[in-house]
Amino acid sequence: MTSINDKATTLLRLHQPGNPVILPTVWDAWSANLAAQAGFEALTVGSHPVADSVGKPDNEGMSFEELLTRVAQITAAVDLPISVDIESGYGQTPERLIQGLIEVGAVGLNIEDTVHSEGGRLREAQEHADFVGGLRRAADAAGVHVVINARTDLFIKQVGDDADRVERAIARLTLAAEAGADSLYPVGFHSDEVYQRLTSALPLPVNAIADPARGEKAGYASLGVGRVSFGPLLQAALAVRANELLARWS
Fold first, then answer.
1. Tally of CB atoms within 10 A around 18
2. Which UniProt keywords apply (predicted)?
3. What digits encode the pLDDT tens for the residues 217-234?
4. Strand blocks (E) in the chain
């Protein structure tokens, strides 16, 4: 078994702009084993597919404890670095979030700036950076370099004027980087031009979301991306194929 500190170091090292780490988004031990057997070096656990798998809505429809139960099953099944989408934090303190993740063997997290428990408001840029800073300090105190992927929902929520949205995202994510993030996630599907602006302006590896049925690693590598994940799209693609199989028998 690899130590948790080794896993954290490995996950951080895999983030290489121009040679992105591909983190298949999994939701249970079965999907994690599937990705591990395909040869991937690390995985991420997605809140949306986990929520779907337990019959709860996304956007913090499940509790942090319910998420941890599923993550513990995944880390028991595969000996790989695991990052976890903790949405906006489930109303927990940074200390509790880090403690819970380390206890179940996770070494990374994705933290977004939409606060679901407060009507879906977007955290102010400094407010989100301060939360990232709290997570970094908590991880440092715990002695594990938990890899923090700081996400902004400016694009998917289409907040403010489109004309300066990229600049506002860069400013917001730069604050998160200064607060202790390890990678930055301007979630959404962007043009090549926008990705190039983001990857050239941001000081840390950029996470891109990809459709596993359409995209390819080389395309994201050429844009300078450092990390690729699938969100709920791997689960959705498998659902399409499952429906095709089941339709033969219905």
1. 13
2. Lyase
3. 999 999 999 999 999 999
4. 21-23, 25-26, 43-45, 82-85, 108-111, 114-115, 121-122, 147-152, 183-186, 207-209, 227-229
